[in-house]
Amino acid sequence: MIKIINMLKKLMRYLTALFIFIVHLIPFYILINIAFKTRQDTSSRWTPPNALYLKNFSDVWTQSHLGSALLNDLIITVCTVALVVFVGVLAAYPLARYPTRWNNAIYTLSISTLIVPALTVLVPLYKLVVDIHGISTYWAMVLVLTTFCLPTVIFLYTGFIRTIPRELDEAALIDGCNRYEIFFRIIFPLLKPVTASVIIIIMLGVWNDYRFSLFLLQKRSVQTVPLVLSQFFSQFQNNLPLAAAGSLLSMIPMALIYLFLQKYFVSGLAEGAVKG
Amino acid sequence: MDIVQSSKKNPGEMRTKGNRLKSFFDSPVSLNLMYIPALLLFAVFIYYPIAQGIKISFTNWNGYSAHYSFVGLEKYRYMFTDMRTYKVIINTLIYGLGSTLLQNILGLAYAVLLNAKLKGRGIVRTIVYFPVIVAPIIMGYVWYFIFQYDGGALNDIMLAFGKEPVDWLGNGPRAVWLITLVNTFQYMGVAMVVYLAGLQAIPKEYLEAAEVDGASGFYKFIHITLPLLMPAITVSIVLNIIEGLKLFDVIVSMTNGGPGYASHSLSTMMSDLFFAGQDAGFAAALGNLMFVLISLFGISSLKFLRGKEVDL
């Protein structure tokens, strides 16, 4: 009897898991169906295409200049990630190692900016970037994104550095290292795991950013993928297969990174959250 | 403690300039130089704009002209008498609190299910988490294909069951909930992963001991699992609230705030006022209101949940 109940329980679990799997797959299934059909094909979005119509992909690639948008995205993402890791780890070390009253206040001040939503300062931030002639430039975009990513990065690094034993620093000091050598040669190499998490979290946010790009990147030549695609959607309301193909293409780079580095994505986000 | 004091050993040597410089760099205080770049960035791109935002909210600036004048509290008075403001605040709260609730309940349920030994649970976790890597603006468009009136996937189902097609996003309150659901769909994977990590960190002995005492599965969950998950729950909920109250991209791609103003959040309304409405003063006032709202909910939820955590 107990055996049967256990079997039923197990079956229920499998059925629930299967149900979840199917529900979460539906939007992507629909997207793929649309992307591979011709514009004239009026069959239901639930039915798969008769033949794979690939012209949507080449059309959207040339018409919306996806290639240059990908390049812009790549430049902005790489620069932001590099800068935010550098500035963030530098800031985190003294804040984690020397928690004087003054440094604790600075730490609180930095972390509380996590609450400041980018859009609440939209008006003045936009005005500032206009005033420093930064609209439609890579550098202004990178600096603004770096600033708004910094609280998270400082938070993650500070948390991690606090778990590294102080004895390590002291031993190095006795061995004649100065404080900067201790940081660069002893502490920094130990930060590899948390750096992997930081890179992934920030990369996702920056690569997929829409709100900053919308306001700060107004020239076509510097626009990123989400921005270009959103304009494409509003311009070609009557050619949705093209828009669907574009959406699908835009997911490929991150999807590939995700499939190969899945372990880091998941552990990175989870650690970041749980260590808090 | 040794480190902190080592620089004070030989005060006599500090007389010459070179030595003074050297001893400064030997002391831990000099390490504080390392956070100057971060502070500069915060000052320029966050604190200065916050101050400017307060100033702009007291003006009638239109967003581009060189001339404007101070109008005192006029924009705030206008903001609080405009019925749209209240509509938009309620929407923002539904977006923020609604998706937080759904993401965490579903995320926890998924985590409990997918923590059990199931063949293929890895694949299910992967597909649940996948939307996290998609740009939210694109995710909104993908769901638009489903909710669209003409030829949308959902209306195909309605037709198949002999029902009339529904303009899913054409009704304001319904659009708000559908957007909340889409946001939940996209980010519940994060909650799931956080709870999975939390579940795996619970020492097995606790659950086994309870089992020996004859506790039921439900009892174990309420009295052991849930209290030990509290730190993970706190982080997940606070981050979800802050993120949810900022919701912007999905709204833009699904309804663009429509029909009328019915599905605007504070973020989308603000950007609309600034760029289309050319009322920077009003937009800045709304921005300050949003800042207060998010700080209030973020900090109070953190305080409340931290109080519920237990020590091992």
Describe what this molecule looks like in 3D.
The complex is a heterodimer of chains A (276) and B (312). By secondary structure, chain A is mainly alpha-helical. Chain A has helices spanning 2-35, 55-63, 66-97, 101-112, 122-131, 138-162, 167-174, 179-190, 192-207, 211-216, 225-235, 240-274. Chain A is globular, with a radius of gyration of 24 Å. In chain A, 46% of the residues are buried. The mean pLDDT of chain A is 86. By secondary structure, chain B is an all-alpha fold. Chain B has one domain (81-306): MetI-like (MetI-like fold), CATH 1.10.3720. Chain B contains 14 helices and no strands. Chain B has helices at 2-5, 17-26, 36-56, 74-81, 83-115, 121-129, 136-147, 153-160, 172-200, 204-212, 217-245, 249-254, 266-275, 280-307. In chain B, helix 5 packs parallel to helix 9 and helix 9 crosses helix 11 (217-245). Residues 1-9 of chain B have low confidence and may be disordered. Chains A and B meet through helix 1, helix 3, helix 4, helix 5 and helix 6 of A and helix 1, helix 3, helix 5, helix 6 and helix 7 of B.
